[in-house]
Amino acid sequence: MTVEQAGRPVDVRISFDPPTLNLMLFHRVGKARSALTRKIVVSGPRPWLLPAFLRVVRLP
């Protein structure tokens, strides 16, 4: 994750329902189900960068 100056374009935006994100991170709810129910929405000009980012970040 990097922090940049305000005003620069972002690669990915994530909108989420906090309980659903927590359950997804602990593998209690599937990623596809979370996306299809629109509890987690990934948007932005380059959303394909998100999986590579999630492989680097250590999650429980």
Task: Give me the number of helical elements.
Answer: 3
- Please give the order of strands in the largest beta sheet: 1-2
Any low-confidence stretches, pLDDT <50, length ≥5? none
Q: From the alpha-carbon coordinates, what is the Rg to the nearest angstrom?
A: 12 Å
Beta-strand content: 5-15%
- Output the helix-strand order: EHHEH
Report on this structure.
With 60 residues, the protein is an alpha+beta fold. The protein has helices at residues 18-25, 31-36, 50-56, and strands spanning 13-16, 40-43. Strands 1-2 form a two-stranded antiparallel sheet.
Sequence-ordered SSE layout with sheet pairings:
Elements: E1 13-16, H1 18-25, H2 31-36, E2 40-43, H3 50-56
Antiparallel strand pairs: 1-2
Short description:
The chain is 35% helix and 13% strand.
Structure keywords:
60 residues; alpha+beta; 3 helices; 2 strands; 13% strand
